[in-house]
Specification:
The chain is mainly beta. Helix content is about 0%, strand content about 65%.
Length: about 80
């Protein structure tokens, strides 16, 4: 994610080895989904998903990507 910490906007970059269904979501510290950024078919290659964090209160969040058998989770800090 760039930048991190996040003020209002950020970009999540990923690379997929093959076309697959991708689900990318943001979760609060209690594990509740607060934003779904992607939920559909993505082609192989590099991708960027823009995050509009302006509606999120300051705090610690995680974002998780599930792409076929691939799974990853990272943290982001939302600041004012």
């Amino acid at each position: 994610m760039h930048p991190n910490p996040v003020t209002t906007q950020a970009v999540i970059r990923s690379a997929l080895p093959h076309a697959t269904h991708v689900r990318l979501a943001v979760y609060d510290v209690l594990g509740r989904e607060v934003a779904r950024l992607a939920d559909g078919e993505f082609s192989a290659g590099e991708h960027e998903v823009r995050v509009d964090a302006s509606g999120l209160p300051p705090g610690l969040y995680s974002y998780r990507i599930v792409a076929g058998d691939l799974r990853a989770s990272r943290t982001m800090v939302r600041v004012r």
